[in-house]
Write a structure and sequence with these properties.
Blueprint (H helix, E strand, L loop, with lengths): L5 E4 L8 E4 L8 H14 L24 H16 L4 H9 L4 H13 L6 H14 L1 H17 L6 H7 L1 H17 L3 H15 L2 E2 L4 E2 L4 E2 L6 E2 L4 E2 L4 E2 L4 E3 L11 E2 L4 E2 L4 E3 L3 E2 L4 E2 L4 E2 L7 E5 L2 E6 L5 H4 L8 H7 L17
Parallel strand pairs: 3-6, 4-7, 5-8, 6-9, 7-10, 8-11, 9-12, 10-13, 11-14, 12-15, 14-16
Antiparallel strand pairs: 1-2, 16-17
Helix pairs in contact: 2-3, 3-4, 4-5, 6-8, 7-8, 8-9
EC number: 2.3.1.30
Keywords: Acyltransferase, Amino-acid biosynthesis, Transferase
Protein name: serine O-acetyltransferase
Length: 347
C-alpha cells in the first residue's frame, strides 16, 4: 500500500536534486509514519514537526528547482551546521528537513509564535496552507529576504533573515494574517496579530496593505494601522508609527510611496501621502503630505532637502542634498497651501 510521504534524495554537489511523491492512499502507511515520528521525537524533541502531508496542499512543491534563494538557504544552513555542530539539530529541523522555503518559514514562525493554546503543529498547518496556495506571498517572502540581505549590513545571508531576524519574522507573519483577513477569517487574523505583537513587539493590523521587497530593520516598536498602505521596496526602521489622528473610521492612515525610507522613531499620522522615494528623518512627526524624492525632518516635520538619485530605501542613506534651498529659490518654489513645500527664511 502506498503512503503520502515525501521522499527526498540527498545528492552530491553538482548533481540535480530529485524529489518523489508517492500517491496518497485512503489510509496512511503506519510503518512509515511510525518510523518518521519516532525519529523526529528522538532527534528533535524540542521542536514540533507538524503535518507534512503534501496532499493537504493544493500546490505541491517537492523540490527547489529554479529557486535560488531556497538553494542558498539550504547551502548556508549546511555550512553553518558543519561550523557549529551544536546548532545542527536546530538547522536540520528548521531548514534541512523541509522541501521548500514556504514549509521552512512556516516551521520557524510556528515555533516562534506558539503558546499553550496556539500549538506549533496547528500553526504550521495553517501557515503552510496559506503560503502554498498564495503565489503573491511566495513571491513576497523571497523579495523580502533579498531586501534584508541587500540593505541590512548585519544580515550576511538569506538564512540569517529566515532564522534569526524578528523584523523578517514579523513581516511574514503579518502576510499570513493579512491573507487570513482577506479570506474572511478575521478572528484568527486578529488572534495572530496579537501574538505577533506579544512575541516580536511589532503591531501591524492584518488589514493594512504592504508591498514586496520590504525591510523592517530591527522592527521593535513598529506600529502600522488598519488602513495604512506601504508601497514596494520601502525600508522602515525601528519605532516607526503609521497611525491615525482620532476616533474617526474609514481611510485614516498614511500611504507610503514606493522606495521611501522611514527613519527610526518617526511618527506619521493621518490619511496623508509620503511620496515615492521620499525620506523621513529619524524622530520626525509628519502631519502633512511629503512630496516625492524629498526629505522631511523635525517636529512637526518640514522639508529640509531633496533626493535625485536612487531611492533612499535602497541606499539606506539618511541624508539629503545640501543645496536644496538654492534649488528651491532657483525654481521660484513657494510654500504650498498644504505646507508640503518649505523655504527657509533668511535671518
Amino acid at each position: 500500500m502506498s503512503c503520502g510521504c515525501v521522499l527526498l534524495q540527498e545528492v552530491e554537489d553538482g548533481e540535480e536534486a530529485k524529489s518523489k511523491t508517492r500517491a496518497a492512499s485512503s489510509s496512511s502507511c503506519s510503518s512509515c509514519s511510525g518510523r518518521r515520528r519516532c525519529r523526529s521525537e528522538r532527534m528533535f524533541p524540542m521542536y514540533a514537526m507538524g503535518n507534512r502531508r503534501p496532499n493537504s496542499i493544493s500546490r505541491t512543491i517537492l523540490d527547489s528547482a529554479g529557486d535560488s534563494i531556497w538553494d542558498s538557504v539550504r547551502a548556508e544552513s549546511k555550512s553553518e551546521a558543519e561550523r557549529e555542530p551544536i546548532l545542527s539539530s536546530f538547522l536540520y529541523a528548521s531548514v534541512l528537513s523541509h522541501d521548500c522555503l514556504e514549509r521552512a518559514l512556516g516551521f520557524v514562525l510556528a515555533n516562534r509564535l506558539q503558546n499553550p493554546t496556539l500549538l506549533a503543529t496547528q500553526l504550521m498547518d495553517i501557515f503552510a496552507d496559506v503560503m502554498m496556495k498564495d503565489g503573491s506571498i511566495q513571491c513576497a517572502i523571497r523579495l523580502d529576504a533579498q531586501a534584508f540581505k541587500d540593505r541590512d549590513p548585519a544580515c550576511a545571508s538569506y538564512s540569517w533573515a529566515l532564522l534569526y531576524l524578528k523584523g523578517y519574522h514579523s513581516l511574514q507573519s503579518y502576510r499570513i494574517a493579512h491573507a487570513l483577513w482577506n479570506q474572511g477569517r478575521k478572528v484568527l487574523a486578529l488572534a495572530l496579530q496579537s501574538r505577533i505583537s506579544e512575541v516580536f513587539a511589532v503591531d501591524i493590523h492584518p488589514a493594512a496593505r504592504i508591498g514586496e521587497g520590504i525591510l523592517l530593520d530591527h522592527g521593535t516598536g513598529l506600529v502600522i494601522g488598519e488602513t495604512a498602505v506601504v508601497g514596494n521596496s520601502v525600508s522602515l526602521m525601528q519605532g516607526v508609527t503609521l497611525g491615525g489622528t482620532g476616533k474617526q473610521t474609514g481611510d485614516r492612515h498614511p500611504k507610503i510611496g514606493q522606495g521611501a525610507l522611514i527613519g527610526a522613531g518617526a511618527t506619521i499620522l493621518g490619511n496623508i501621502v509620503v511620496g515615492v522615494g521620499a525620506m523621513i528623518a529619524s524622530g520626525s512627526l509628519v502631519l502633512k503630505d511629503v512630496p516625492p524624492h524629498s526629505m522631511a525632518a523635525g517636529n512637526p516635520a518640514r522639508m529640509v532637502g531633496f533626493l535625485e538619485d536612487e531611492d533612499p530605501s535602497l541606499t539606506m542613506k539618511h541624508d539629503a542634498r545640501k543645496d536644496y534651498f538654492e534649488h528651491v529659490a532657483a525654481s521660484s518654489m513657494e510654500k504650498g497651501a498644504n505646507g508640503t513645500l518649505y523655504r527657509e527664511k533668511e535671518s
